[in-house]
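User: Before I run my own analysis I want an independent prediction to cross-check against. Here's the chain; please return only the C-alpha cells and, at the end, one sentence I can use as a sanity check.
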Amino acid sequence: MRVDFAPWASHNGMLCHESRADFGSDLALQQYEEGGMSEASESRSKVGHLTGARRTATKDAAMSGAAGMEPAAFHGFLVSKLGGVARFQGVSDRWICPVSIFDAPSGFGEEVWMDAQPFTRLVQRLAGAPVTCCWGAHAGRRNRGSAITLQPRGLPNHFSATGHIRSALLFLPDTLIDRVGNDLSPSRPAGAALREDLIFVRDPELERLFSAYLRAVTMPTSSLELEARAVLIVAWLLRMHHGFGTPAQRPVGGLSDWQLRCACDAMEAQLDGDVTLEAIARLAGVSATHFSRAFKQSIGMPTFAWLLQRRIERPKLILTDGRTPLVEVALAVGFAAQPQFTTAFRRVTGVTPGAWRRDRWP
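Assistant: C-alpha cells:
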C-alpha cells in the first residue's frame, strides 16, 4: 500500500517545524511536493564509503548527540546529519504521537546509528531507495515497498539506504504503549519489552492505519482525532504482533446511556478548546481503548468525527446572522485560522462556509 501523501499546504492553519540547517523555527506548513522522487537504483553504498577512523568518529558523534533526545530534537539531529528537507509536527499541537516526514537526498547510514535509541518509533518507507537492515537476525534484509518497521526504545536503529529516500516516522511514547497494553491485557507489566523482530512487516491493516494517520495530519484535525488514531495503531500492533487481547477474547458493547451522555456533554462543553480521548474516557469510567470502540458502536461514527460534526454545527448558527466575518467565526469555535475552518466545514458539509451562508442569506 503506497501512501498517497496529500500536500502540506500553508493555508490550512497548521504549524510544523520546517527543518533544513536551521532546525527549530516554527513556520507555516509549505506545500509538500513529491519532488520527482522515484524508485532509486543502488548506485553507491552510504555505509561502504565510511571507513576506518572516520566511520568510528561518525558513529560516536551520532551516539553522543542523540542519547536522551526528545523526538523534536532527534528530528533536528537527522536533518543536521543528512541534510534535505523534513517536516515535523505534533509538539506544539500537543499530539500524543508526533510525526516526521523526512527526505534524505543521499540516503543514510552509520552517521545516524544508535545502539540504543531513546524512544519507540514506527517507520515506513514512502518512496525512493530501498532500505536495508544492518543488525540482528534480519541483517541484509531489504525493503523496496511500504512495509513497516517497529523500532523499540533501547534497541539499535541500524538501517541504511543508498540513495534519495522519503520516510515517515511516528513516535510512540511509553505512556501510550503501556496504557493501551494494560487496557488489552491488565496483567501486562508497565514497560514490558516490545518485539524487536518486527522489521519490514507487511501487514495491510497496520499500513492502512498508518496511512490514515498520515492523511489526517494534512487536514484540519484535533489532538483527540490523532490520539484516537494512535490508539488504534498501538492496539493493532499489540494485538496482532504481541498477542494481547484479541478482539475475539474481548468483545465490546456500546456505552450505557449515562456514559454516552456524560461523554457528549463534556465534549460539547469544550468545542472551542482542546479535549483528549483519555480525559473523556475517564469521565465515562472506562479506558480510552474501550471507549473508542464502544462510542463508535453506540453512535455509528468515531469520537473525533462526532466532535468535528458538532464543532461545525455551532458556526452554522453564527453564519446565519449574515454579518460576522468568517475569520471571527473560525476563532469563536476554536479553529486556529479561517482556512483551517473552511477546510473542516467543507469536509463535513460539502461546501465552504461562505457558500453555505450565501444560500441562506442572499
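Sanity check: Strands lie at 15-19, 26-28, 86-89, 99-104, 120-128, 131-133, 142-143, 148-151, 159-161, 165-172.
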